[in-house]
Amino acid sequence: MTATQTAALRVEKLDRVFDVSAPFLSRLLYRQERRYLHAVNDVSFSVPSGGCLSLVGESGCGKSTVARLVTGIYPPSSGQIRFAPGRSGQPLSAQMIFQDPYASLNPRWRVKTIIAEPLRELKLRDTEALVAERVAELLGIVGLNVADGDKFPHEFSGGQRQRISIARALASEPEFLVCDEPTSALDVSVQAQILNLMRRLQDELGLTYLFISHDLSVVRHMSDQIAVMYLGRIVEHAETEVLFADPKHPYTRLLLETIPDVNSPHRDRKIVAGEVPSPLSPPSGCTFHPRCPLAQDRCKTERPNLETKPDGARVACHFA
Ligand SMILES: Nc1ncnc2c1ncn2[C@@H]1O[C@H](COP(=O)(O)OP(=O)(O)OP(=O)(O)O)[C@@H](O)[C@H]1O
């Protein structure tokens, strides 16, 4: 982020611990201790106003939990989440777009009712005629027809359903959108259409995005910055171009190696070597050390802090 850009969102030292203990009686019978899972651990970042920061990492690294903390679905165990004032002068609030648009759309409601709900709930339009007019406008903004408003969610394809979710999210006139894997349930060609739509909306409506994905190739063209997470922590955070040109953390390099090469005859995605350890008993020192090609003894005992490199990248590795 440059000095002239203001941060729409600042997250500082965010932690979220889940109590995953067995029920009281079985703890008593089997003499089990309470168990805690540290899903998000000391996470700090800021998202420039009008920009896009993506959080990337394998399943279970804590990215969705960060999204849920930022949107207020979960309270943090500790740390700060601060939104800057929006255009109204009030602090921004975030709207969320989910991975599975079908699960997040009421199947019994017509699309126009789904999109109108936030308008009615927040009393953003005074009359039913104005609500209908705004619903038609929102359908147009996301590339659907007015007639689509009379249909039910099951009558649409996955990509169209995600367009409906976006229209509903936009109904409350948010300035900040948290997008949790919004395209990962879609076919590759449809993914590109939804990503293009989201980029266009970002420009036209001046939106700020926090984007969540397990896939670096998906976020590459969306993001100004990328933060790579591993077992609840950010291990590398850099401008997108810097991250792709000079990935420093061995985990970021592994993730980049899994991006399919379009020129390769074997375009299948490679699997990231090794398995993610259980967050219930994370490895000592640097939690990536059991999978790391650079690991030495120090990595088993000493956790590396995020350090800022000359090109601005923040990296947590003793040997990057
Ligand atoms: N409500 C919860 N209760 C207990 N554990 C949870 C809860 N939510 C998430 N977790 C655990 O926290 C860790 C991080 O989960 P999270 O969903 O944030 O990861 P993720 O990177 O988004 O993965 P995915 O892409 O699979 O959703 C996981 O080990 C998960 O099992």
Automatic annotation (TrEMBL):
Pfam hit, one: oligo_HPY
The keyword Nucleotide-binding appears for this protein: yes
Keywords: ATP-binding, Nucleotide-binding, Transport
Domain ABC transporter: 9-256
Principal location class: membrane
CDD domains xref list: ABC_NikE_OppD_transporters
Gene3D superfamilies in UniProt: P-loop containing nucleotide triphosphate hydrolases (3.40.50.300)
Compartments, record wording: Cell inner membrane
Membrane topology qualifier: Peripheral membrane protein
Stretches that traverse the bilayer: none
InterPro entries from the UniProt entry: AAA+_ATPase, ABC_transp_ATP-bind, ABC_transporter-like_ATP-bd, ABC_transporter-like_CS, Oligopep_ABC_C, P-loop_NTPase
GO molecular function terms listed in the Swiss-Prot or TrEMBL record: ATP binding
Family: Belongs to the ABC transporter superfamily.
Annotated PANTHER family: D,D-DIPEPTIDE TRANSPORT ATP-BINDING PROTEIN DDPF-RELATED, TRANSPORT ATP-BINDING PROTEIN
Protein name: ATP-binding cassette domain-containing protein
